[in-house]
Structures are given as C-alpha cells and as structure tokens.
C-alpha cells in the first residue's frame, strides 16, 4: 500500500480525516454532503449507512489507489472524478439493457430463473425486475433504448391470447384455424369482428395496466444502497407497428395519470425519439404519439426529446435496426458509435467520466484577477492540455481496475449478457477486453464562467466570445478523437450533468480567489456549455447558440428552455419550441417549467403563495414544488436539493415570463 | 402613449409563444383588476419611436414567435396610436398575428365603423373582450381571467357580421 507521505504526522492526519467524515455523516452536520445527491435521503439510516461506506471508499481510493497526479488535480480543484467511491472496486457507470434478448430468452436474477413472458403485463413487470437487477451491478443509469420495439412482441402475445378466447366465447369458429393472429391483420378483423374487437380492447387495457404498474414499480422500489430507486430511463417513439404504438400510448397515458394520488412520477426518465418520416409531421405514422408526448411533457416534464435527425445521430443510423437509433442513459449519456464496430446501443454503456473545471483555468489565465489586460490563451491551452492528460490518465487507470474485475463481480450484467459477450465468461474470468466497447468520457463544466474569466464576457453575450467558447470545446473534442486513435479506445467528450459538482468546484474556487463577479459570485457554475440560467436571452437564440455544441459532445449533452407559465394550457407554444430545437440540430432537448402541487386539494399548475383552486396558503399547507435538476426530477427542490442547486433554481430566468 | 410592460416571449397571453406589449391607461376600473397602477396613462415608460423600433426588431428577429399580444391597461383607450404602431410593425416585420385584450365588448367596438377603435380592431386577429368580473373569475380559463370574457376571431366575425369564437389551432 503506497501512502503518499508515510510519516507519523501523515498517519495522524489520515486518522483525523476519517473520524471527521464519520461524525459529519452520523450527526447530519454537513447538509451539502448529505444532500450531494438529490435522489438519496442522506438523513435516513440507510442513507447514512451508504454514505459511511462511500466516504470511506473515496478516502481509501484517494490515499491508496489513485495516481498521485490525479489526486493532486482533484485537490487543486482542476479535475473531478465522478463516483469516486466506486473507483477502487472497479464498478462501471451506465448501460443500455438489451431487453429484447433478456425477455425473449428468459433470464436468471441470481435468486431464481424467469421464463420468457407470455403477456404484456408480465413483460412489463419483468422490465422492472431487470432494471432492478442490473442496477446492482453498476452505479449509474440503467436504460431501455427502444422499449416500444422490445415490448411489442408481448402485446402481440396478449392479443393472440385474447383473440383465441374471443373466437371460442363468441362462437366465431368457422372450421378453419385462424392463422397469423396479429393486430394489423385486416382479414382477421373481417372474419372474426367480435373476437377481434374484444381482443383489441382487452389488450389495450392490459397494456395500460402494465404501463401503470411499471411506472409505479420504478418509483417505489428502493433497492439501491441508501434507499435510492434505480436511475431508470426509457426511450421510445419510433415503433410503428400497432403493438409498439400501443406500448408508447400506454406509457404516455400512465405517465399523465400520474402516481397514486396523481403526482408526477419522478422515474423513469422518459425520452421520446423524434424522427422525420416517423413522428414529426401530420402525415407520419406516429405523429399523434408525438403530440401526445408533447402533451405529457407539458404536464409532467417528461418525456424529453431525442433528435434522431441531428447529424451526430444520423452517422450510424440504420432505419432497419432500432438499436442504431440515438437514445440516452441516465442524465444524458450516449454510446452510439464504437471503434470496434458495435455501432448500436444495447449491451454496452459508459465506463466512467472525469470532469474538468474550466472556470479555474479561465481565472488563472484570464483577465478576471486583474493581473493582465488580455487573456493568456497560450497559457490557457497549455494548462488545458496538462489537465486533459491528467483526467485521461485517471480514466485509463480506472479502466485498468475495471478490466481486472471478475465477471461474478457484476454478476447479473455479465452472466445474463446484459453487457454483450458477458454470458461467455466464466464467473472467475476478468471482464477484460469486453469493456472496450464502452466509452471513457472527459467532461467539462462552466464554459460560461470560464469565458467570463478569460474575456470578461460569456458566450451568450458576445459573438466573438462565442467563437472562442466553440473553439475550446472543439479543441477538447479533437483531443478525445486523437487519444481514441492513439490508445485504441472510445474516448468521448461529455457535457457533464453536474449535480453535486456544480457547487463544489465553485465553493473552493471562491475560497481561493474570492468572489469574482459573474464567475465565482454565485453558488454554482453553469452546467457544461449552457448559457447561464440567470442571463436573459430569447429562447430561439439560446437554442441556436447551444445547438452548435451538441455535435461536439459525443458522450452526450442536453439543452433546456425554461418556461414560466402553465405550459399545459399552451400546446402551440410547447410544440413550436420543441420542433424549433429539433430543426436547429439540438441532439437532446427538454423544456423546464414549474409544476407546483397543492397538498390540500391536489391542484397542479403554478401556485404562488396561495393555491388558486382551494385558497390554501403555503404557510398552512405544503406546496410541493417540482423542478428538474441535471436531467432528472426530484420530489421537492426545497427539501432535497443541495444548496447550489437550490440557488440555481432560484436564479433561473424564464425564457418566457 | 406609455408602455407599462413588455415580455419579449410569453406563453400566458395567447396561443403560442408571443411578444406581450402592455399599453398604459384604462378607464374601465374593473373591481379586482389585476393591476390598477396601469390605469394611469402616465404610468410606465414613454412608448417612443425608438422603443417601438427596438421591440419591432425583437419581433422580426425571433423565429419562434406565433405573434404578439397587446394588453394594458386597455390599448383601445389609445386606439389611434396603437394602430400606428401596428402599421409600423406590419410594414417592417410582415404579417404578424395580433391578439388584443380589452375591457370593451366586441359589440361596443364595432358600433361605429368610423371610430378609431374600429380601425384598431380591424388590424388585429383575436380579441379577448369584456371587463374583468371578479365574481366570474376562473383560474382554469385559457388566456383570460373571468368567464364572461370571450376569445373572438376578428376577421371571421367582421366577415360574417356576428361573433365567431376563436378556436385553438393545436390541441393536446
Ligand atoms: S379592463 Fe383590465 S386593466 Fe382595465 S380595469 Fe379592467 S381589468 Fe383592469
């Protein structure tokens, strides 16, 4: 074990550090530590238990495992290693689950084997179980990239079952055995009208019931450590068979109906995949479902919209293979192209990511500290190279640990071939080269504050600064591409969804540099390449500016527009904004709007201090204020967000008042 | 004429994303009026030619707008000047769809075809008419405050000679 400084004082110091961590957690002293992840109740027993484990794991990794250069870069606040608690044990980040394969062949959870389902109801129940089983093999999001396509065969099975029943009960038998039983068989409909209609109705009802229970399950099963529910995402929208359409329709209906007493479901993250010719104009087969998705999003904040027509996503798109359609995992991650030829989604994922603090580099080499009149761009890029190398070293070092893990460490994932090829490994075999199909990602935060620090203005304020910002991100992408070739690995650029991080970098930079206006004077740094939430800018312009970055971020990015007002009552506005974003080649998009809920009467909409429906005052009844943070929803931003994210929500300028 | 408010983009005052322009001055004095300060014709900032051109520029440059909404106060108390503004807007930004809010009723506004109010009405596309009635207040209504208020399709109504209600173009 290599301690950085193996002296007596160092040992004393280590001990004190460890004791302090324990005390902070047990006494819930450090609220930001406890609320680092808005999805975890850090004040609960299981939350504290998992926090103790994870804080120790981080401490251990830093002192005994990681390369010194990386630890130093973390300590100097230049680099952030996400999910550091998982570093030493070699866990991987997120994955697209091949539901078609798992459902079609049956699977084993480790506690029992499961047969292929014979109805949509069972199939949907199994989807929840698969999500849950897989979640325990990794630390990031679990995603279904094409759940409509994956579930359509089970709608067909249910239909066939009901149809046969119908023929028997309605006595529509005509001697010949009905063949080719499926929902688009028009002949069947003519010959057995009653049975057909009955089967259709029953299947529809069953699909909806299945969708309801799926969404309920995904919001209630706290199976992850700390009582968290799995980070699930489901992507859909392009399956044009009547069975697939029924799945999409049912998921949207169930989402709009909401949970038990009508609350907005927080999971799964839902993503509607938009494609010209499939669901984008009135003549397209799934256009009605796109409208319904927009309605659902106006009501529930989900689904988000994935743009299959964006250039980055068209590169490997094959209309005959839904697994080649762009989709996202967790917050926004993608892994579509693979230098080893698996240019599709299912069966792989992101391995890990490290984020660069661009703001600190900006402060060091910019004009913000008043040390120079003009930004030292050469110095900036030189330092950038240095920290890119360190961040990459960290990824590679971690990758090496991940590769050495035995298949049985991520048992479900490997044994069942959730990660493609894992099923061929013996339990004691290391996962090794299989992981190379996944991506290693370099992320970034605070382009806006970085520009401000370098040039005095951010990229929303000034066109020349915008070009500088664009050049910076293009430079980082080129670095990733170059390193991919050199190292023969998938190294990708990520517009980091910074949740815990957005405040951490800032806090320490402010301690060091003081409060610099427009740079460190807020509690958070602006996410990735976004135009700051507090900056007034028209929606179209924000979309146009941010759109250009999407093509560069091949590990994922999202753009948001904030709407102030009841989005539900203005469908035209909602639709036009979504379609405008798609037309500008934004790859992944969503609209944020406030949803308040009065706990006295259940009214949902915008609530000031007084509920417009029942007149209750916020001091007397709880008004639940739902907001989106870094891609997923959190029950109530005032009680579960960390302070940086609370501040961000307060500062958001609505792009429409 | 004074401007008492301007939102370059809003989803609350009409269908689609709209630029909302609030003209100061109102003599209806509805009970429960949402902002009595706007009754004063001198409230807000002067709606100078320069400010008008700035706003027209915003509108012309914004590809996401479905149109504009004129509110107040009540723009019909400054009918002639608002008409001039609209002419300027249409000349520079093309065919902009215009919603206009008023405490008058459609019948009152169409009573005299020679009046400035009628001229303004003709330049607009959707009229949200009627005084705000506190007793009829309903927060579930789209784009208006009390249930006596109507959303009227102006060109259709002028053509047919009777009130034709506006219908949403996109429904969920
Ligand atoms: S017409 Fe409008 S501004 Fe005028 S008093 Fe009535 S509610 Fe107030």
TrEMBL record, chain A:
The protein's name in its UniProt record: Ribonucleoside-triphosphate reductase
Pfam families named among the record's database cross-references: NRDD (PF13597)
Gene3D superfamilies named in the record: 3.20.70.20
Gene: nrdD
Domain of life of the native organism: Bacteria
UniProtKB/TrEMBL annotation, chain B:
Cofactor(s) in the UniProt record: [4Fe-4S] cluster
SUPFAM superfamilies in UniProt: Radical SAM enzymes (SSF102114)
EC top class, as a word: oxidoreductase
Enzyme Commission numbers on file: 1.97.1.-
Entry-linked InterPro entries: Aldolase_TIM, NrdG, Organic_radical-activating, rSAM, rSAM_sf
Key words, A-Z: 4Fe-4S, Iron, Iron-sulfur, Metal-binding, Oxidoreductase, S-adenosyl-L-methionine
Family affiliation: Belongs to the organic radical-activating enzymes family.
Chain's role: Activation of anaerobic ribonucleoside-triphosphate reductase under anaerobic conditions by generation of an organic free radical, using S-adenosylmethionine and reduced flavodoxin as cosubstrates to produce 5'-deoxy-adenosine.
Name of the protein: Anaerobic ribonucleoside-triphosphate reductase-activating protein
Protein source organism: Paenibacillus physcomitrellae
Classification of source organism: Bacteria, Bacillati, Bacillota, Bacilli, Bacillales
């Amino acid at each position: 074990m290599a301690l950085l400084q193996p002296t007596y004082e160092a040992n004393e110091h280590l001990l004190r550090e460890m004791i302090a961590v324990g005390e902070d957690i047990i006494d819930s002293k450090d609220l930001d530590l406890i609320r680092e992840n808005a999805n975890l109740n850090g004040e609960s027993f299981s939350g504290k238990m998992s926090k103790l484990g994870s804080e120790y794991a981080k401490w251990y990794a830093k002192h005994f495992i990681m390369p010194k250069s990386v630890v130093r870069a973390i300590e100097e606040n230049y680099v952030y290693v996400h999910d550091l608690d998982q570093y030493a044990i070699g866990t991987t980040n997120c994955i697209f689950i091949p539901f078609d394969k798992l459902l079609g062949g049956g699977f084993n959870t480790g506690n029992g084997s499961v047969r292929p389902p014979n109805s949509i109801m069972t199939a949907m129940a199994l989807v929840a179980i698969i999500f849950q089983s897989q979640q325990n093999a990794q630390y990031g999001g679990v995603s279904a990239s094409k759940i409509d396509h994956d579930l359509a065969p089970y709608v067909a099975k249910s239909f066939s079952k009901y149809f046969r029943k119908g023929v028997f009960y309605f006595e529509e038998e005509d001697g010949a055995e009905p063949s080719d039983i499926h929902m688009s068989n028009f002949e069947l409909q003519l010959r057995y009208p009653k049975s057909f209609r009955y089967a259709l109705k029953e299947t529809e009802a069953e699909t909806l019931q299945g969708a309801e229970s799926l969404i309920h399950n995904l919001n209630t099963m706290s199976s992850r450590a700390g009582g968290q529910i799995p980070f699930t995402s489901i992507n859909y929208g392009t399956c044009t068979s009547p069975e697939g359409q029924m799945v999409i329709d049912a998921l949207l209906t169930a989402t709009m109906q909401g949970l038990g007493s009508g609350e907005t479901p927080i999971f799964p993250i839902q993503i509607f995949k938009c494609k010209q010719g499939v669901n984008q104009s009135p003549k397209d087969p799934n256009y009605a479902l796109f409208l319904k998705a927009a309605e659902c999003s106006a009501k529930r904040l989900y689904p988000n919209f994935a743009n299959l027509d964006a250039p980055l996503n068209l590169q490997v798109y094959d209309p005959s293979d839904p697994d080649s359609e762009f989709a996202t995992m967790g917050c926004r991650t993608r892994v579509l192209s693979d230098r080893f030829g698996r240019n599709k989604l299912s069966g792989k994922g992101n391995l890990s990511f490290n984020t660069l603090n661009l703001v600190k580099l900006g402060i060091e080499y910019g004009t913000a500290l008043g040390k120079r009149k003009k930004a030292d761009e050469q110095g900036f890029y030189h330092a950038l190279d240095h920290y890119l190398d360190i961040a990459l070293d960290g990824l590679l070092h971690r990758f090496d640990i991940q590769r050495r893990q035995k298949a049985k460490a991520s048992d479900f994932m490997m044994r069942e071939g959730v990660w493609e090829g894992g099923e061929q490994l013996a339990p004691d075999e290391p996962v090794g080269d299989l992981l190379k199909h996944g991506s290693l990602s370099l992320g970034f935060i605070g382009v806006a504050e970085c520009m401000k620090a370098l040039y005095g203005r951010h990229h929303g304020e000034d066109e020349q600064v915008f070009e500088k910002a664009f050049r910076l991100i293009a430079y980082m992408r080129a670095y990733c591409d170059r390193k991919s070739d050199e190292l023969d690995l998938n190294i990708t650029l990520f517009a980091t969804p910074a949740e815990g991080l957005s405040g951490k970098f800032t806090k320490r930079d402010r301690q060091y540099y003081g409060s610099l206006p427009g740079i460190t004077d807020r509690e958070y740094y602006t996410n990735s390449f976004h135009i700051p939430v507090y900056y007034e800018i028209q929606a179209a312009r924000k979309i146009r500016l941010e759109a250009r970055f999407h093509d560069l971020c091949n590990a994922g990015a999202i753009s948001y527009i904030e709407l102030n007002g009841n989005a539900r009552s203005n469908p035209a506005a909602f639709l036009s904004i979504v379609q405008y974003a798609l037309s500008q080649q934004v790859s992944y998009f969503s609209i944020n709007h406030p949803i308040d809920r009065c706990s006295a009467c259940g009214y949902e909409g915008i609530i000031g201090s007084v509920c417009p429906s029942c007149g209750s005052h916020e001091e007397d009844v709880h008004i639940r204020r739902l907001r989106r943070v870094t891609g997923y929803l959190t029950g109530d931003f005032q009680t579960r967000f960390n302070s940086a994210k609370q501040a961000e929500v307060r500062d958001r300028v609505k792009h429409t008042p | 004429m004074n401007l008492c408010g301007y939102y370059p983009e809003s989803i609350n005052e009409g269908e689609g994303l709209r630029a909302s322009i609030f003209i100061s001055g109102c003599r209806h004095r509805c009970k429960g009026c949402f902002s009595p300060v706007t009754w004063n014709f001198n409230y807000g900032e002067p709606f100078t030619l320069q400010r008008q051109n700035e706003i027209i520029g915003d509108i012309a440059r914004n590809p996401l707008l479905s149109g504009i909404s004129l509110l107040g106060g009540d723009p019909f108390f400054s009918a002639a000047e608002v008409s001039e503004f609209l002419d300027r807007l249409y000349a520079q930004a093309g065919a902009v769809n215009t919603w206009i809010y008023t405490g008058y009723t459609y019948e009152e506004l169409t009573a005299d075809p020679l009046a400035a109010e009628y001229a303004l009405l003709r330049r607009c596309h959707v009229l949200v008419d009627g005084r705000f009635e506190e007793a009829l207040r309903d927060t579930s209504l789209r784009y208006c405050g009390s249930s006596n208020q109507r959303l009227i399709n102006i060109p259709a109504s002028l053509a047919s000679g009777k009130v034709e209600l506006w219908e949403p173009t996109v429904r969920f």
